[in-house]
Amino acid sequence: MMTKVTLLSTMEVKLIDHMASDIAVTRAAQVSVKGENNPDTDMPRLINYLMECRHGSPFEHTAFTWFVKAPIFVFREFHRHRIASYNEMSGRYTKLLPEFYTPTPDRPLRNVGTSARPEFEEGTERQQSIVQQGDLMVAQLAWDQYNRRLNEGIANEIARTVLPVSIYSQMYVTMNARSLMNFLSLRVDSLEATYRTRPQREIQMVAEQMEADFSIAMPHTYGAFLKHGRVAP
Fold this sequence. Notes:
This protein has helices at about 20-35, 45-50, 70-80, 125-150, 155-160, 175-185, 200-215, 220-225, and strands at about 5-10, 10-20, 65-70, 85-90, 100, 110, 120, 170-175. It is an alpha+beta fold.
């Protein structure tokens, strides 16, 4: 029986665990002058100083771990950041799920800027239809061929080669707050940023959810990050 594919338009991001707090930053910063200590310095002032003067190492004494479910093309962009630890679902060792990405109708489709400085506008109804119909057709064809190979006893690592990068994968990613701020500075578009980076919308959808968790766990650090133009220390 042919399995119908599912088209998704969301990115799943779940904070699994964290060892991250503003006090961890101040404790690490003060050890250089106090040794082992119970931080008693004005926390917001010290964290702001560290951010302003680009003293980054105290922010590394933290850790966040997320579960992320997103299309493989998003993971390709994610893995360019060599500042984290990744463990991803393997298409060599397990059968992947029949879930593929397609953008929502309100996702801008036309680049009216340049390749280096993209600016997107909404697509026409015809363009939206072409994208959504094409995504479904290609996903179903690829999934059928993938299953056919598996059913014929072809190894997973070869069977998967027919699948497009729109198929969803899953991973755990762990990074410290300094690395996270570097990631967010590049993958969240903000008019308030010192350096605007114009990331692809789909990886920004992941980064925005990670940023929300960061803002809750480390509010003083997050506030200083915003104050100084979203530049990582």
